[in-house]
Design a protein that fits this description.
By secondary structure, the protein is of the alpha+beta class. It has three domains: 55 residues, no CATH class; 79 residues, GMP Synthetase, Chain A, domain 3; 68 residues, Ribosomal Protein S8, Chain: A, domain 1 (2-Layer Sandwich), CATH 3.30.1370. Strand 4 and strand 5 form a beta hairpin. The chain is extended and about 80 Å long.
């Protein structure tokens, strides 16, 4: 944790100076007001500047390097794209790619996207010492947000089916990231249990109703979504 003091004509002015100098947003820092200061009214009395103390984490200097590496990888795929890296927190770096051909970079069910993220994460661990505790999230034209909503809806529908039939429902194989979305979406449902099953790379989520079926549950195969 780093600490630095700033002064300004007002508290707001001091905060703006701090954020501009540190290249941070207000939600990335903790601000302590040391002295609110005193304004000079009609030229009478002494004007005292506002003083604040800013607590912040040192921001990675490698964001441009992440952008360069990702841009180079994409160019080798023959795709034109714009890459922007942003440090969302002290443990997460978000890299967004905008392209005229996003489908090629995303791949079937995000397979290419996951591979690109894995490759970039490995390169970051090798070349950037301050990346060992940082999670890299790569997104292509907002795909992850759209996919996350699709997965949540799928999870809810599968859970309803499991509760209605009282038989387990198996979803299609997914990456660890996507399986986690399913587990988190259903963790508050007291009538449902979820479990990851199968062998990588074909692991999938199985959704169970906690209510037992009066009939023999093994008489039918689990439903698959």
């Amino acid at each position: 944790m780093l600490v630095k003091e700033f002064t300004g004509k007002s508290e707001k002015d001091a905060i703006n100076k701090a954020l501009e100098e540190l290249s941070l947003t207000e939600d990335q820092v903790r601000i302590e007001v040391i002295d609110k200061g005193k304004r000079n009214i009609f030229g009478i009395g002494e004007e005292i500047p506002s003083v604040i103390r800013v607590y912040y984490e040192e921001i990675s200097t490698n964001l441009s390097e992440f952008e360069d590496i990702m841009s180079h990888i994409i160019s080798l795929m023959g795709v034109k794209a714009t890459v922007v890296a942003k440090e969302e927190s002290e443990t997460k770096i978000h890299i967004n790619v905008t392209s005229e051909n996003p489908a090629l970079l995303i791949g079937k069910k995000g397979a290419t996207l996951e591979s690109l993220q894995f490759l970039l994460s490995l390169m970051a661990l090798k070349y950037f010492k301050d990346s060992t505790d940082r999670r890299i999230i790569l997104d292509i034209d907002g795909y992850r947000e759209r996919r996350e909503e699709t997965l949540k809806q799928m999870a809810r529908q599968a859970a309803q089916h499991a509760k209605r039939t009282r038989r387990p429902v198996s979803l299609d194989p997914m990456s660890p990231y996507e399986r986690r979305i399913i587990h988190l979406e259903l963790q508050e449902d007291s009538e449902i249990d979820t479990k990851s099953d199968g062998e990588a790379p074909y692991r999938f989520v199985k959704i169970y109703s906690k209510r037992k079926n009066n009939q023999d549950g093994n008489r039918h195969n689990n439903q698959r979504y």
